[in-house]
Specification:
Blueprint: E1 2-4, H1 7-13, E2 16-17, E3 27-28, H2 64-82, H3 87-99, E4 108-110, E5 113-118, E6 127-132, H4 133-136, E7 144-148, H5 149-156, E8 160-168, E9 177-184, E10 191-196, E11 201-202, E12 215-220, E13 223-227, E14 245-250, E15 259-263, E16 270-277, E17 283-290, E18 297-302, E19 305-308, E20 315-321, E21 324-329, E22 333-335, E23 338-340, E24 345-349, H6 350-356, E25 362-366, E26 372-379, E27 384-390, E28 393-401, E29 407-411, E30 419-424, E31 433-437, E32 444-449, E33 454-460, E34 470-478, E35 484-492, E36 503-506, H7 521-528, E37 533-537, H8 547-551, H9 559-574, E38 583-588, H10 590-601, E39 608-612, H11 631-634, H12 643-649, E40 664-669, H13 678-689, E41 695-699, H14 710-728
Parallel strand pairs: 36-37, 36-38, 38-39, 39-40, 40-41
Antiparallel strand pairs: 1-16, 2-3, 4-5, 5-6, 6-7, 8-9, 9-10, 10-11, 12-13, 13-14, 14-15, 16-17, 17-18, 18-19, 20-21, 21-24, 22-23, 24-25, 26-27, 27-28, 28-29, 30-31, 31-32, 32-33, 34-35, 35-37
């Protein structure tokens, strides 16, 4: 069975954070748009501004007054940062990295062809292209263009950003049809158009949706399941801005003629379609009802109605292998006399469930120890592979059901200890691609041979920076409650522990997102080569050690996350790595909230703070865009029991006009329809009206990544690292 869920739907069901790579956006987290009438400037009110907020006018995303302020701040801040002695060099390095043609062309395999999305200096919006598997294995593959997004944008005079594809070829069919997702400027909201993959053309008169945060799933070439904004006015969306229902849409029908199969509630996070093709070609399909960010019910839809998969709400369906359906648990589960634990990987016979609609016997597949965490299962034609964290590093295990009963795990060989993952696996394909990288080890793409259980290097990223004299250490800090918090430090081997090293500390701490060792040419060239140290903090709220590590920092316990990050900063100072005047911090989205709390709770500990696409007004976040979907992570400001803690930690409400803050850099995007740009705007306005120095950059395009193409990413990266350099390096360092 291939379980398929659209990219937009998947985004809404999980949060993910990326490292500071020039090849990736800042953060991924799930969206609804609220338009607030503009109000005139007013004096700063006292701490509780939820109802008397003088800056509500800045929440008008494209309001005239708000954009005038944004443009003025952009002009001022860009002039200041571009005046840095290192900006031109940083920008040249960032552009070179972003547009380099010697990157690994990661791809997916379909019918013996490798498909890849590629951006460079010439193809700014990108090419969707393909080559044969044999050609892909060479140093210079012969690529065939499938769709040119620069040309498409020019032809249609639209700011199209490619957001992925959803392709389907039923068993026995000759043609592959896809939905191509297109975003205006990088927003999460997309349109979907039917595309003939073999003809390399959009289908004339084919399926096409209007713009919305939506999901689609194929049932056959003439039938799809759709979850979207059916009224195009927000009336059929949840409070989080996602679909409330799934409908059956047949070829030749208009979208409003689609038949409703399942409907949820306005208070749900969202309702998403899914479909699966069984081994015998039978299609099953259904809906995923995400009633909260962390709980969901999977339904099978058929003539009998909706039948729920009998698994805990805090769990996730994986693929199936030889009839076994994998499930990852985020809560304890008792089945008869069996007791499964949070973090377990379990499995049951899928066909037995579909036949009886009752839960068959459940097997334990893998149980993580206290230093491990399950990342996910990937299934190919010939193997089931499990990706895990082990003491934060990545590891791959092969899963096999033994003839005696029970599951065996077999280590898959990897080049070393770093970040390892499954780059590609598909139930219809034998080809499996693995990825390996580390702080000082460039990305390597490996092929996996199931017959021999071996991995072989296929492509390696050339070194992007000089690693001579650099080393990586894993250390521990002790948090306020005694918890040991691991972190990585990348620094020169001959570091002088006198506190003089410019140090960048990066953190996230939320949504069970794991931060693991990864290779970044940007960090290498613009920071490490200049003599700086880079630190990655594995604080609670993340998934490095499984669901319990995440759940320890939910809602009113979130101060633990903040204490963990503070503990890492203090430990770096205690060990002599750096001093506050040389210590900077960076984080995006949920990590942006972390940065906001750090600047208000411990302004004495840092001298530079990069606050990317942040949440900052924690008393109104649930009313802005996708904020309502995150109340299970942060708490509900409208709940009298949960509001006091949010009042205590909310950066916006805890701004102190008399405090001595380090000069922050705010980075956001007008087109971010996930985390509202109003958060950054309003917090920066507090700095402005209090006469405190700050820098602000709002990219008009780019969505939640704050960049819509490679050159925009390069500019953002150059701005951030130039700011950090000027704040943390000695004044004469550039000479």
């Amino acid at each position: 069975m291939r379980f398929t869920l659209s990219a937009v739907a998947a985004t809404a069901l999980m949060a993910a954070c990326t490292s500071l790579s020039e090849d990736t956006p800042i953060v991924e987290e799930p969206a609804a748009e609220v338009s607030v009438e503009a109000e005139a400037d007013a004096a700063i009110e006292a701490p509780d501004m939820a109802d008397t907020d003088p800056y509500l006018w800045m929440e008008e995303v494209e309001g005239e007054a708000a954009l005038a302020w944004v443009n003025a701040q952009n002009e001022r801040s860009l002039a200041a940062i571009k005046g840095s002695a290192v900006y031109d060099d940083n920008y040249a390095k960032a552009v070179d990295l972003a547009t380099s043609t010697d990157r690994i062309p990661y791809g997916s395999v379909r019918d013996g062809l490798v498909y890849n999305f590629w951006q460079d200096e010439t193809n700014v919006r990108g090419l969707w292209r393909r080559t044969t598997l044999d050609s892909y294995k060479t140093d210079a593959p012969e690529w065939e263009t499938v769709l040119d997004f620069d040309q498409l944008a020019a032809d249609e005079d639209k700011n199209w950003v490619f957001k992925g594809s959803n392709c389907f070829k039923p068993q026995g069919a000759e043609k592959t049809l896809c939905f191509v997702s297109l975003s205006d400027g990088g927003k999460d909201a997309v349109i979907n158009r039917e595309f003939d993959l073999d003809a390399k053309a959009f289908v004339d008169g084919g399926f096409e949706t209007t713009e919305a945060k939506q999901g689609l799933a194929w049932i056959d070439h003439d039938t799809v399941l759709v979850g979207t904004d059916w009224g195009n006015d927000g009336s059929t969306l949840t409070e989080s801005g996602y679909p409330t229902s799934v409908r059956l849409w047949k070829r030749g029908q208009s979208l409003d003629e689609a038949v409703e199969l399942y409907v949820g509630d306005k208070t749900d996070v969202g309702i998403w379609p899914w479909s699966s093709e069984l081994d015998d070609g039978t299609m099953i399909y259904g809906a995923v009802d995400s009633d909260t960010f962390f709980t969901r019910t999977y339904y099978v839809l058929d003539d009998a109605g909706a039948t729920a998969f009998p698994i805990p709400k805090k769990s996730s369906l994986g693929g199936d292998y030889k009839g076994w359906q994998f499930v990852t648990l985020q809560e304890d589960w008792t089945v008869g006399e069996q007791e499964f634990q949070t973090g377990d990987l379990v499995a049951f016979n899928l066909k037995a469930f579909l036949e009886t609609k009752e839960l068959p016997p459940v097997d334990l597949v893998f149980r993580a120890n206290e230093r491990q965490a399950v990342n996910g299962v990937a299934v190919s034609k010939s193997a089931a592979l499990l990706s895990i964290n082990e003491n934060v590093a990545g590891k791959i295990l092969r899963l096999e059901y033994s003839e005696e009963g029970g599951w065996d795990t077999i280590n898959v060989p990897l080049p070393g200890t770093g970040q390892a993952g499954i780059a590609f696996a598909d139930e219809d394909e034998d080809t499996v691609f693995l990825n390996y990288e580390g702080f000082l080890s460039p990305d390597t793409l490996l092929t996996y041979d199931a017959d021999t259980n071996t991995s072989t290097g296929l492509k390696s990223l050339p070194a992007k920076f000089n690693t001579d004299g650099l080393t990586v250490q894993q250390m521990e800090a002790t948090s306020a409650d005694g918890t040991k918090v691991p972190y990585f430090v990348v620094h020169r081997e001959d570091i002088t522990l006198d506190g003089s090293t410019p140090t960048l500390l990066y953190g996230y701490g939320g949504f069970e997102v794991s931060l693991r060792p990864s290779y970044s040419g940007g960090i290498g060239r613009m920071w490490l080569e200049r003599g700086g140290a880079y630190v990655l903090a594995n604080i609670r709220g993340g998934g490095e050690f499984g669901p319990a590590w995440h759940q320890a920092g939910l809602k009113g316990n979130r101060q633990r996350i903040f204490d963990d990050f503070i503990a890492v900063g203090e430990d770096l100072i205690d060990k002599g790595v750096t001093k506050p005047e040389h210590l900077g911090i960076m984080g995006g989205s949920n990590g942006g909230l972390l940065m906001g709390v750090m600047i208000t709770q411990r302004p004495d500990l840092w001298n530079a703070v990069v606050i990317q696409v942040p949440l900052l007004d924690m008393l109104r976040y649930h009313k802005l865009l996708a904020g309502a979907s995150w109340v299970d992570e942060y708490g509900d400001p409208d709940n009298p029991e949960e509001r006091p803690f949010l009042e205590k930690i909310s950066p916006y409400q805890n701004f102190d006009a008399s405090a001595d803050y380090p000069t922050p850099l705010f980075v956001t995007s007008t087109k971010d329809d996930r985390v509202h740009p109003g958060h950054a705007r309003k917090m920066a306005k507090l700095f402005e009206d209090a006469g405190k120095p700050f820098l602000y950059y709002e990219n008009i395009d780019g969505g939640h990544s704050a960049a819509a193409n490679q050159k925009e990413r390069a500019k953002r990266t150059a701005l951030e690292f130039s700011y950090l350099y000027d704040r943390l390096f000695p004044a004469d360092a550039a000479e």
